[in-house]
Amino acid sequence: MKRVARALLGAVAMVGLAVGVAQADPQKAEVFHWWTSGGEAAAVQEFAKAFDAAGGQWVDTAIGGSGSTARPIGINRIIGGDPPAAMQFNTGKQIDELVAQGLIRNLDDIAEKEGWKAALPPAFYDAVTRDGHVIAVPINNHGQNWVWYNKAVLDKAGVAEPTTWDEFFAAGDKLKAAGIIPVAVGGQPWQLNLMLNAILLSEGGKDLYLKVYRDLDPEAVKSPEFKKVAEIFGKIRDYSDPGNPNRDWNVATGMVISGKAGFQFMGDWAKGEFVLANQVAGKDFGCILGPGQKNFIMGGDVFIFPKLKDEAGTKAQDLLATVMMSKDAQVAFNAKKGSVPVRLDVDNSALDACAKIGVEVLQDPDKQIPAADILASADVVQSLTDVVAEYWANPSMSADDFVAKWNTAVEQAK
Ligand code: GAL
Question: I want to staple 57 with a disulfide (CB 3.0 to 4.6 A). Which of 28, 63, 103, 347 is the partner?
Answer without folding.
Answer: 28
